[in-house]
Amino acid sequence: MRLRLRILWLFLSSFWKSSLGLLEESVLNLTVLLNDVDITKVSNDRYVALMDLGRIDLALRVGLRRAMVRKLWGPLVTVHSIRFRYPLKLFQKYQLITRVVCWDENTFYFEQIFKRNGRVLATGYVSSTLMDSHGAIHSLKMLEEIAQQVTKPEEPEIIARLREIENRIHETQIDQM
Description:
Radius of gyration: 16 Å
Number of strands: 6
Mean pLDDT: 93
Low-confidence stretches: none
Number of helices: 4
Distance between the termini: 28 Å
Shape: globular
Oligomer: single chain
């Protein structure tokens, strides 16, 4: 990841930002920097990297900072899909809105939206698993760590389709072994 300074800033600023509930939105106000653009606009791979920032901000603000540092929990994206509509250009200000859509035994599913002046620029969906040195961390363990009473939302159709794509890719990987 090429966003080390932004991650450091997120971590430090999480100490004075307000806490969030698991189902609340993280909103990051960002600016397109020189290293975000290829020639004239934000490059495709940079959107995906910026989405990491939104999920990290949400994780820190829901109460996972201690576990991520002390227990060495780290996120692993298993599948992501993004739909671009309008480009972001150098020095433009924009928002990245991140929210948990649902979860299953080991995976959390996120919706992430890039907006500028109220206009949706890109929308992404991500499946992500928290990992430690022993493998995937069960969702219930993560929920215990944040100590929030939260009702699990229904899985939307778009997440069911993302999961279907993930399963098909997994089958293809097994066939290639």
